[in-house]
Amino acid sequence: MPHFYLNIRKLNELVEDLEGQDFVDLAAAHNEAIVAAREIMSDGVRKGNRPEDRSRFEIMDADGCIALVIPFAEAFID
User: Fold this and answer.
1) Using an 8 Å Cβ cutoff, are 4 and 20 in contact?
2) C-alpha R_g of the chain
3) Torsion-angle region of 77 (φ positive above 0: left; ψ -120 to 50: alpha; else: beta)
């Protein structure tokens, strides 16, 4: 199973996922990032903050290469 790291980029700050997780594929890592973005934004709203829709996940593979970038804004349901 592939191992991916779901790092979060907030403007010029990078919050690294030091452990990572095994996912069936990149699509499963993408789905996890969407769920996590919703949780992070919801938590912020409950605390009275604006949603962090300019933040993004940078999913890195086990070799340290960025495999996918997912803006938090993608987590909004149209």
Assistant:
1) yes
2) 12
3) beta
Question: What amino acid occupies position 78?
Answer: D
- Each residue's pLDDT tens digit in the chain (78 positions)? 999 999 999 888 999 999 999 999 999 999 999 999 999 998 888 888 777 668 999 999 999 999 999 999 899 875
Q: Which two tokens stand for residue 72?
A: 């938090």
| Domain locations in the chain as residue ranges | 3-75
Query: Which CA distances in Å does 34 have to 29, 48, 63, 67?
Result: 9, 21, 22, 15
